[in-house]
Amino acid sequence: MVDSPSISPWVIFFASILTSNMILSNFLGMCSYISISGEYKTASGLGKAVSLVLVLTMGVNYAIYHLVIRPLGLEYVQYIVFIMVIAASVQVIEMAMDRFLPDLHRKLGIFLPLITVNCAILGSTLFMVIRNYGLFQALLFALGSGLGWWLAISALAAIREKIARNKLPRGLAGPGIAFIITGLMALAFIGFSGIFAVQ
Amino acid sequence: MAETVKALIKRNLWQENQVVRQILGICSSLAVTNLMANSLVMGLGLTFVTALSSLTLSVLRNHIPHRVRMIVQTLIIAAYVILVDLIIKAWLPDISKQLGPYVGLIITNCIIMGRAEAFARQNKPVPSLLDGFFAGVGYTLVLLAIALIREALGFGTVFGLPVNVLGIDTWTIMVMPPAAFFIIGVMIWIAANRMDRKKNAAGQPAAQSKEVTRRG
């Protein structure tokens, strides 16, 4: 789609938080975004876990793509390889966290299995391939995407906590209003679009 | 629990529609719906993968060890997605470029895993095939409905054919992300409202559909 070897990694970093936010403009990771945004603390924890997994799996997938898949011409099995790498890294992260950071594991551990199938993770790896990012571009893109995802889910959860006490029209409570709030947030984020030229 | 084919179709297309009732598979239903053609291709691709992976998993349901079933399911789904990706790349290269990563993301589409876990794991192959197929059809119909609104108002076209006979200014916002959120939000609202009314009219707390594992 876009060949972007010349864009500064920092521009990609800020663009992926604000102008091409994972949720608000790429629609990735929506299932957990909608279903786990009822409570601010939980949502924020999930956001942190997603950012962590995104950066780590991006590093591994970048290495595998450039050292194994491309030289051997195995592009057609890349989906299977990527999803296996993600599943395996999540497992390893969970075990390492359990061993070395038990406190963090108690807080984020429940989210880790969920994250394997979060499309934001596979999505950013596929964006890395399609846009032909270099290593630093890819890592900062992953970090920015994770932070952007965290920002969006925390904002939604905070708003939903306030709304929970109000009466809503029949049928609108729950996912309906969550989407409408997200739409308003996306509208607000369009305001950033003049800052960065990359998509 | 033999379910008639008619009931199965009704359940998948309306009562438990994957997108507007179960809130699954949202990512792609928002991302590709700015054009009718893209939505149709995406819908057909997902229907194909859901139907065949449900069939395969149902055939193998007594042979897959319980503990590793997730990874086996993911592998089977990924294999079908590769097939779909290659077909779209070969015959519809333009659409393949526009869909970008979203074809590959069918692997993590919650609908497929949801059907595999909620239905194919306990049912015979033929009902599983039908269940997966009609779940996909229900998804496709919602996608086309969203795309119809967005493309007609945003570009003034339907399937690329001009329909803007009145010469109204097109609304660029309709093809941008916020409109996708608003339209799907309103659709979910209407669907929930209709179900709620029917439930009250029946005078009993209707049996809510069993909660499907939500993953994304």
Keywords:
heterodimer, A: 199 residues, mainly alpha, 9 helices, 0% strand, globular, B: 216 residues, two-stranded antiparallel ribbon, disordered C terminus
Explain this structure.
The complex is a heterodimer of chains A (199) and B (216). Chain A is an all-alpha fold. Chain A contains 9 helices and no strands. The longest helix of chain A has 33 residues, at 40-72. The radius of gyration of chain A is 17 Å and the shape is globular. The model of chain A has no long low-confidence stretch (mean pLDDT 87). Chain B is mostly helical and 216 residues long. In chain B, helix 3 (36-59) runs antiparallel to helix 4, helix 3 (36-59) runs parallel beside helix 6 and helix 3 runs antiparallel to helix 7. Chain B is globular, with a radius of gyration of 18 Å. Chain B starts with a helix and ends in a 14-residue tail after the last helix. Residues 205-216 of chain B have low confidence and may be disordered. The interface between A and B is large, with 46 and 50 residues.
Q: What radius of gyration of chain A results from the CA coordinates?
A: 17 Å
Structural class category of chain A? mainly alpha
Strand count of chain A: 0
- Tell me the Rg of chain B in angstroms: 18 Å
For the largest interface, the chains and their residue counts are: A-B, 46 and 50 residues
Number of helices of chain A: 9
In a nutshell, what does this entry contain?
With 199 residues, chain A is mainly α. Chain A has nine helices and no strands.
